[in-house]
Amino acid sequence: MKELPLHTLAQLQSGELKQQHIKRLQIAEQLTTFPLEILTLSDSLEVLDLSNNRLSSLPDEFACLAELKILFLSFNCFTEIPSVIAQCPKLEMIGFKANQIESVPENCFPVDTRWLILTDNQITHLPESMGQLHRLKKCALAGNVITQLPDSMQNCHELELLRISANKLASVPDWLLSLPKLAWLAFSGNPVTQSSETHADFLQASMSEFVLGDQLGQGASGVIYQAQWNKAQLDSAQTSSHQTVALKMFKGAVTSDGYPKDELHCCLTAGEHPNLIKVLAQIAEGDDLGLVMEIIPSGYYNLGLPPSLITCTRDTFADEMSISLDSIIKVMASMAGALAHLHQQKVSHGDIYAHNTMIDDSANILFGDFGAATDLNKLSVSQVNQMQAIEVRAFGNMLEDLLGHYSQSSLHESSDLADKTLFTSLLLLTEQCLNNSVSQRPSFNELAQQISSLR
To answer: Coiled-coil stretches, from where to where (predicted)?
Structure first.
């Protein structure tokens, strides 16, 4: 998400912001009470971000913000969701990440809520009124103490992304796995997925063996560095004791996807595949938890960009990004093969997106980022199959997004009959993946075969 410009309380109180008729307001000044001057912006304010303060309540008059669409109150001191927000007529995007919320009252959210973030709180249960959120697409609940989801949520037919990792779920309801549009689901770190697997047989490395270099990237669960690995013992295939690697060091805290330890577990359980970023060793000593991975060759770049506030759950793409139909076929055939491999190992990825896919100019791909992955070994056979079908829908969304970007680009206007035939075939395949009946979707093995036949 693009950061909003930071405003000051002094600007607000002086009337300067009202005169500007601003649509977006962000203040972070350790506020303990809600500045009532915000209510004077009711005729224009659409986005309000008061994250990183010390607020614990909202005034009854808050509902006068008739144009408000987006409300972020993360990293504050709320212990209960303030029910007044339900009276905001246009509010659809709500974030209360990392408060101390224990209580979620009935009917406290607007019925048109589309995006709801309640990660890292102390919520024990959700109200039955959750089922009234008929537009809910994205719901993040990781890092709470929820023991079960309300059955009413089976009415949330628009739900596409759900994060319920790091809670207290003893089972996964069948209705959840049957939701027609659910595509990105993560529920690791619950009793239902708890594994005793320690991966003690996987190569262990020590932090003392590494010399850290440049930071390559940073995500919710950790930081990735380029590093020199000075191995104590050489593999027979190695000609030097020094190897350049990518070293991912996990943060300890729960993320929007779950616990870092579950990411590490799923990554090691996944095993090797030509289109998965190869893991060479693990680090588990004291507070240090990490993965040693092969460095991604130069020339690879992210195929897509993360979703925006507008697209909510769907990838975005750089305007200059172009991709041929042949490349789309190669990418998706490789992806289907990698995902078939993962599900054979009973691991769901949970985050199948173009922005998690690295590609080079020859359309070779490397897929990674297991932050939302889930170990499926303790589920029933039917639920394991349903989880694959959910991931097939995510695959279909990714294919649809790539085809949409291809068709919108003037670079790809073509009267070539073969291209039109290929495009039509891929659209039909997309429809199969997006079938609202979970049981009617193809498996990843079937998808890999069908796409490969197009090549």
So the answer is: none
